[in-house]
Amino acid sequence: GTPQKYDPTFKGPIYDRGCTDIICCVLLVVAIVGYVVVGVVAWTHGDPRKVIHPTDSRGQFCGQQGTPNEPAAPSPCPPPVQICVSKCPDRYMTYLTAHGNAAALDYYRNFCTPEFKNPLKGPVEVLKDKECPAMLIPSTPLARRCFPAIQAKKGVIMVGNETTYDDGQGRRRNVTELLEGAKKANVVLETRQLAMKIFEDYTVSWYWIIIGLVIAMVASLIFIVLLRFLAGIMVWVMIVMVILVLGYGIFHCYMEYAKLKGEAGSDVSLADLGFQTDLRVYLHLRQTWLAFMIILCVLELVIILLLIFLRKRILIAIALIKEASRAVGHVMSSLLFPLCTFFLLCLCIAYWASTAVFLSTSNEAVYKVFNESSCPFSGHTCKPETFNTSNITKLCPDAQCLFAFYGGETAYHKYLIVLQFFNVFMFFWLANFVIALGQVTLAGAFASYYWAFKKPDDMPAFPLFSAFGRALRYHTGSLAFGSLVLAIVQVIRVTLEYLDHRLKAAENKFAKFLLSCLKCCFWCLEKFIKFLNRNAYIMIAIYGTNFCTSARNAFFLLMRNIIRVAVLDKVTDFLFFLGKLLIVGSVGILAFFFFTHRIKLVQDTAPPLNYYWVPILTVIVGSYLIAHGFFSVYGMCVDTLFLCFLEDLERNDGSAEKPYFMSQNLRKLLKKTNKGQPSA
Fold first, then answer.
1. Transmembrane ranges (predicted)?
2. What pLDDT score was predicted for residue 424?
């Protein structure tokens, strides 16, 4: 590309600009209107209760107000017959044993269909007509459904506290015969038990988790404030602290590894132990602590080697961070701006999720003919209201009209998959647009700082709000263009992931290889487009040009300074990563000592937990997200200042007519001077 030439009228972000990429702006508006229409149609036809609540064989909800089964809840019968019951069965019983016993039959009647009205009817006819289940098994409710109450005590499998059951023919059978048909239910019950324990931990530790997140927020804010005044010292302190934190982690793992030496069961390998729901079991194995120690040692070695080879470039990165600290100091509102982006992203996610649920539940109840003997109408669609008076019951006396599934044959139902695809595509487009709006707003504010010759006197009064207004007024189309390109690539990636999931069981190795290559290529393409878009948005914020022109100019500018880009930018990213690691590591270690009752001053204050890793992981993940939010502002600031710095070097030469706009520290570091001004 051609280097930028000196422009005497250029004094920073151009205010006299026009609208860019108008076609994309119109396209975005039309797409949003269509998205709203899809949402309204989905909300009109959809019913989320189909996801949450079970139905009986007639397609009627269990336990819902305004339905025939209002007081009912779970369903114990296997398909195709499902009924709603007030509670799950709590005993073994067969219809053969209940028949003839008034008390037992009265209990059994609770689990029969409404058609069962003649207790004198023969058992064979009742079971043939599927009016009652052949057997009742002790069950437990889960997600409003009845599952066999399977439990293991000391290695013995029991259902309802019994190891055998009566099959109704005078024989006792082992409950293990029921396991094959209830394996998945047992997994669900174990998952439910784990989820309940995790929920209990959250109920007793939520306020301590919030305190931990507040500590992370305060630590991030203090760290950024200190960077403004002591950037060089803080960077080196941060590097030393990260090394010390990792060093302590290695020491702690070694001490735990040594302490477990000779203890019974500590030498069992992870492979032999297998997966355990109680993760505390792994902490009693020497191999676990050895693996932790090796991982931390490798991480420590990699960081030290990187610091050795990049020690000279760190000084340049510190200068950029100092300049970014000053810029953020003059635009303090920028630290709160990610909250606006986060709020808009939450709106996008909420609208996408609710629309997806309503679309997936907008099918209608479809009833099919079920029968045991040969019948020409078997599998045909039927209507329960008119089924008993139709010819089907005359030709097929044992036929029944039962609920089969949710579907539909209208044009709307046929194109549901297309609407779901459009919903996913619009989610990616709008989410990327929100992120782009945040990036171009921050870039415009920080560019106003850099191109102010007398900082901060020449800066506008409200740089952040001015940049936000310019982005929405003039560049909605350009932001829509960039986010559209990225959304298309992301949708293709999601499609490839879906195809990969569907083809896992396939034996075609060539197809798998081709799919893997495509996934890799589109992953790389997405990363490149994100990088290009980010720098294009900076150019849009400064010059007000359209997306393609901005992307081309940014790309050529970076290519003309490829060495500086490769070293300075990445070193700065690495230092920001170390800052996140320090904050997350410090808060995580504090949470670990607190929730494991290892801090004597507050030992009695920490709540008792089933799994102490639950609040610890929550605090660690939350701390990372908080630190990432603060440092993302810094990262955008550094990237903006870096591009402005490169433009400054190309446009100006330090003469009285073309002075440099960079700060005095940067001029000193690069041995540049403005004529008539001191170099230091």
1. 21-43, 206-226, 233-251, 289-310, 331-353, 426-451, 472-492, 536-559, 571-595, 611-631
2. 94
